[in-house]
Amino acid sequence: MKKKSIKDIAQDLGVSKTTVSFVLNKKGDEKNISKKTQKMILDYIKKVGYQPNQIAKSLKNGTTNTIGYLVPDISNPFYAKIGRTIEDLLWEKGYHLIIGSTDEKKEKEERLLNMFLNRQVDGLIIASCFIKGEVLKSLSEHNFPMVFFDREDPGCLANYILVENKTPMKEAIQKTIDKGAKKIGLLSITPDVYSLKLRIDGYKQALLDNGLEYDQNLLRIVDHNRIKESAQKELKYLIEAGVEVVVFTNNQITATAIWLMNMLYPEKVKEITFVSFDNLDIFDYSMPKVISIAQPIDSIAKQSVEILAEVIKSKKIKNTRIELKPKLIVR
Amino acid sequence: MKKKSIKDIAQDLGVSKTTVSFVLNKKGDEKNISKKTQKMILDYIKKVGYQPNQIAKSLKNGTTNTIGYLVPDISNPFYAKIGRTIEDLLWEKGYHLIIGSTDEKKEKEERLLNMFLNRQVDGLIIASCFIKGEVLKSLSEHNFPMVFFDREDPGCLANYILVENKTPMKEAIQKTIDKGAKKIGLLSITPDVYSLKLRIDGYKQALLDNGLEYDQNLLRIVDHNRIKESAQKELKYLIEAGVEVVVFTNNQITATAIWLMNMLYPEKVKEITFVSFDNLDIFDYSMPKVISIAQPIDSIAKQSVEILAEVIKSKKIKNTRIELKPKLIVR
DNA sequence: TCGGTTTACTAAATCGGTTTACCAAAAATA
DNA sequence: TATTTTTGGTAAACCGATTTAGTAAACCGA
């Protein structure tokens, strides 16, 4: 039993495709289709359970009601939760989501981006590792509806939904200093992303403000291709250097470090404090104690969707830059 | 600068659409297009950066290379991780993912399902709360490529990728009984899903096998519409009843309970043992100690994709039922 | 009862590809 | 040289919708 098309319906009822299409699109009255015919078509539609082919619609209309969601890893709770919220918000507006995970790889990002474009997405919501890239740049120039979140390239004009980085990081670290911390280390994945750089700046600023020495050796970079091994090595370095506080620039690295601490140094989990940019539910009851900077997931999602919808609708160039305030959670 | 279509390319080069299409699809030799013309077209394609419109392709070919991924909540780590793995596996086969979260609501599930179908997905990977539903049933009857995972309706023939439920649950609980537990409670979300019922059966069986009394009052059901409040109430009941072990039927409820225990009964976290169907990374270092039944995420994803690809390719009816073995993690 | 308007509806073009069927010229064969 | 085959292409139909431009018939006022 093949699916019925408008053509089939028209034939079955002895009317034209045009008439059926008008009725389906609620243009029956406007287009002077008699009530009788309208009813006949609507009844038949219901009876056979006709569903329009969105692909055909998309081809004709030039719009797919599809948004691409491009992030480093959809299984990272931060991106998963934002994705989920965006899914719900977009659904209300009649859009739905295609997803892509880039693994922070430039090549994968460009391939996914091209896939999205070939599939004629109406817009993109992106946490990109490579905003400067050819494809994105050209899209930007041609005014393709896009919203960037989580990451920014200050050299590129675009719509950004961001979260303040430097100051919150500084303030979170200040809390530990207020409690007497003197030796503070930092663990970050490769900071080729501007927002990570800012978080690290916050770290340096906190030290500076308090007259603490900035020791370059205590700023450790983890290779994001082999997080576990690399983090273990760098964490070990910091522990052996005798730090009282370890600062992390995102949730993934904090989670890894918590796990490592419990596996390798269970005796030390009570002496050390973690500071994490990004919050995770588990921080509420894991050790070491974590002071975290919680990004406002709902706001990020809401703003992204709002700006995107606006840009799609207005078809005008827009370069909004929204900086949201994160929430400091001291435990 | 509008995007070029095949028609534009053909006009620019003074050849026909047909010729361009043949060359683009590597049918140049087969269709006797001269090397010279082929090169000319390919060079021009590269120069102007032509990208085919997948929507048009889909309309003509009747296949979209798109798979729908329908789960209760894409931000649940279990579904997020499986989704991520599936994304990667499908990508290799030239497919990509559209996602939908049902929130365990029948109505939402049907709406999303219809959306997927209107968008002409080539197949579906589903953790459904409502397999018996009209839409799914009719799809099944018309032999639409689908794979169900995580959940089963034994009354419906289909492709299932499942994990053993009863025995592993029984064995996990046995570990706690071996260590002397006598009073064992259970917390589950509303078990309107067959696999949850089986997990609960495993719980009952464990008690039975060991001559322990099955006290209906210790089997508490949490309302999945307001998990936190409901779980708090039910957990309180169990704690006050003096249980030594609490069993959970999925990760979400375990995670909530861990959080609640640490918030409300920090003094008891060391005395109580949790048993969780589904594993989470945090169990490695959270309290109370968790004995967990880890579902083989990678295998689930791999099998789902494999079976789906097979069904799509062969266009034959198939009713595979694969039951994977979970891994018991004792901490 | 004639011209204009409204009513009720339809043919055909279009979106951007793929594919079938066909054709002229050149090359190969009889 | 006449005929067949191969080479190198093209026109047009098609996928399933939307939309423009139009057309008969009914109606309506003068």
Structure description:
Chains A, B: This is HTH lacI-type domain-containing protein. Chains A, B: It comes from Labilibaculum filiforme. 2 copies of one chain form a homodimer. With about 325 residues, chain A is an alpha/beta fold. Chain A folds into 3 domains: about 5-50, 434 Repressor (Amino-terminal Domain) (Orthogonal Bundle), CATH 1.10.260; about 65-165 and about 300-325, 3-Layer(aba) Sandwich (Rossmann fold), CATH 3.40.50; about 165-295, Response regulator (Rossmann fold, 3-Layer(aba) Sandwich). Chain A is built from 12 helices and 12 strands. Chain A has helices at about 5-15, 15-25, 35-50, 55-60, 75-90, 105-120, 135-140, 165-180, 195-210, 225-240, 250-265, 295-315, and strands at about 65-70, 95-100, 125, 145-150, 160-165, 185-190, 220, 245-250, 275, 290-295, 320-325, 325-330. In chain A, strand 3, helix 7 (about 135-140) and strand 4 (about 145-150) form a beta-alpha-beta unit. In chain A, helix 8 packs parallel to helix 9 and helix 10 (about 225-240) crosses helix 11. Chain A binds a DNA duplex (30 and 30 nucleotides) through helix 2 and helix 4.
Q: Indicate the multimeric state.
A: homodimer
Q: Assign an overall shape of chain A.
A: elongated
Strand portion of chain A: 15-25%
Mean pLDDT metric of chain A: 93
Give the total of domains of chain A: 3
Would you report the number of β strands of chain A? 12
Give the number of helices of chain A.
12
Quickly name the level 1 CATH class of the largest domain in chain A: Alpha Beta
What is the CATH topology descriptor of the largest domain in chain A?
A: Rossmann fold
Helix/strand structural class of chain A: alpha/beta
Kindly report the spatial arrangement of strands forming the biggest sheet of chain A. 2-1-3-4-5-11
The CATH homology group name of the largest domain in chain A: Response regulator
Helicity range of chain A:
40-55%
Largest sheet of chain A: 6 strands, parallel
Any idea what the CATH architecture of the largest domain in chain A is? 3-Layer(aba) Sandwich
Largest two-chain interface: A-B, 46 and 46 residues
Q: Runs of chain A with pLDDT <50, length 5+?
A: none
Cα-atom radius of gyration of chain A? 26 Å
Distance between the termini of chain A: 62 Å
